Amino acid sequence: MKILSKEVALPLAFYNRDTWLKVAFFAVCVFMAGFSLYFTDGLVNKLEEREKQQIELYAETIRYVMTSDENADINFFFERIKKINENNTIPVIWKDGSGHLNSINIAMPDAIDIEQKQVLLQAKLKEIIAENNKPIEMDMGFQKEYIYYGNSKLLKLLRYYPLSQLLVVLIIGFLGYIFFSYSRRAEQNRVWVGLAKETAHQLGTPLSSLTAWVEILRNEPSINPEIVVELGKDIQRLETITTRFSNIGSTPILKEEDLEELISSFINYLKIRISTKVYIEIKSSLVPGQLANVNKYLFEWVIENICKNAVDAMSGTGDMLIYLHEGKNNQLFIDISDTGKGIIPANMSKIFNPGYSTKKRGWGLGLTLAKRIVENYHEGKLTLKSTEINKGSTFRISLPKPLNKDV
Ligand SMILES: Nc1ncnc2c1ncn2[C@@H]1O[C@H](COP(=O)(O)OP(=O)(O)OP(=O)(O)O)[C@@H](O)[C@H]1O
Ligand SMILES: [Mg+2]
C-alpha cells in the first residue's frame, strides 16, 4: 500500500491543528482582555478610594479651620490644604453656607469677575455631580456645608484604559483571524494541488502499462477487435482524467479557444454518456469564432461537473439550455440552465463548500472544483445565477473576453 506523499499529508495534519490553534488563540485573547479588565478595575477602585480619602481629609481640614477659635494656627492648616492639593488634579467645589462656590483644580479664564466665575462654577458643579461621587458633608455646627469633587485626570484615563486595551485585543484578534484564514486557504491550496499531483502520478504508471497491453491485444487474432476498440476508448478517458489532474496540480497553460466550438464538441461527447431523456440545447449570441483563454481539459471538467449536476437535479429527465452571450465590461457568459428540482434558499450559500452534497453518492466536490478552476485559473467567476424550487436552476460562468489584438 502506498501512503500519501509528505506534501499532502502535512497540510492534512495542519487542518486538525488549525482548529486547535484558533481555539487557543481565541482563549488567549479572551484571557488577556479579562485579565486586563480585572486588573484595571482593581486599580480604579483603589485610586477612587484614595481620592475620596484625600477629599475627606481636605473637608476635615476646612471644617476645622472654619470652626476653630481665633488662637488656632490657621496658617498650618492652609499649608496642609495646599499639600493635599499638590500633585493631584481632582476638581473640587466647596459650597459654603451662603451658597457661594469656591473651587480647586478648576481652570478659569483670567479676566472674569466674581459673578461670572460663579456662573461658570455652577455649570462645572453640574458636571461634577454627574460624575456620581457622593458629596462630603461638613458639619459646621450651626449649618451643614458640602464639598463636591470629580475624578482626577488619572482616574478618568484609567477608566478608559480597559476600553483601549480591549480595542488592541480586538485588533490583534482580527489580524489573527485574517492570518489564520489566509494560512488555511494557502494550506487548502496545497492540499488540492498535492492531491491532484499525487492522483495524476499514481494513475500514470498503470495507464502506460495498460496502453502497452492493449497494443499487444490489438495484434492478437483470437481477440474480438471491438473489445480492443472499447478498451482503447476507456484508456483515452483515463488519459483525459490524468491530464485534468496533472493540469490542476501545476500551473495550467491557457490557450485561446473558440468557445462555442469547444463547448459544442464537449457536449456532443457528453450527450452519449448521459440519459437519453435529457435534451441539451446550445444557443449563442456571441460573434462566430469568439475566442476565450481557457485550459481545454480543465474547462471541459467544469462543464462536465455543472452538466452532471443538472442531470442529477432533473433525475435524468428534462431540458438543459447552454446559452453563450456577452455581458457588460467585456465578460463572456456561459449560462447553464436546467429544469430540475432547484435549490432551497438555505442551501444556496452551501453548494460551493467542499464536502457539501445532498446526494447519496456525492462527494460534494464537483462545484468546489469547478469554482476553483474558473476563479483561480481562468480569472473568471462561477455563480448560481438563479434557482426556483421545482422549476430549475441556472449556473453562470463568466470569463474575461480576450483583448482584441488588432486594436
Ligand atoms: N443544478 C442543480 N440543481 C439543484 N441542486 C444542485 C445543482 N447543482 C448542484 N446542486 C446541489 O449542490 C450540491 C453540491 O454539488 P457538487 O457538484 O459540489 O457535489 P455533488 O454533485 O453532490 O457531488 P460530486 O462531488 O460527485 O459532484 C449537490 O449535492 C446539490 O444538492
Ligand atoms: Mg456534482
Question: Care to describe what's here?
Answer:
The chain is of the alpha+beta class and 407 residues long. The chain has two domains: 8-156, no CATH class; 253-400, Heat Shock Protein 90 (2-Layer Sandwich), CATH 3.30.565. The chain is built from nine helices and eleven strands. The protein has a five-stranded mixed beta sheet with strand order 6-8-9-11-10. Helix 6 crosses helix 7 (296-313). Magnesium ion (MG) binds at residues 305, 308-309, 366. Residues 198-403 form the Histidine kinase domain. It comes from Aquirufa regiilacus. GO terms for molecular function: kinase activity.
Summarize the structure.
This protein is of the alpha+beta class and 407 residues long. 56% of the residues lie in helices and 17% in strands.
What's the count of strands?
A: 11
SSE-based structural type = alpha+beta
| H/E topology pattern | HHEEHEEHHEHEEHEEHHEE
How far is it from the N-terminal to the C-terminal residue, by CA?
A: 57 Å
Mean pLDDT, to the nearest integer, reads: 86
Strand order in the sheet with the most strands: 6-8-9-11-10
Q: Total helix count?
A: 9
**What gross morphology would you assign?**
rod-shaped
Number of domains: 2
Largest sheet: 5 strands, mixed
Q: What small molecules are bound in this structure?
A: adenosine-5'-triphosphate, magnesium ion
The helix fraction, in percent, is: 55-70%
Poorly predicted segments: 1-15
Radius of gyration: 40 Å
Strand content: 15-25%
Transmembrane segments: 20-40, 160-180
InterPro entries: HATPase_C_sf, HATPase_dom, His_kinase_dom, HisK_dim/P_dom, Sig_transdc_His_kin-like_C
Catalytic activity: ATP + protein L-histidine = ADP + protein N-phospho-L-histidine
GO molecular function: kinase activity
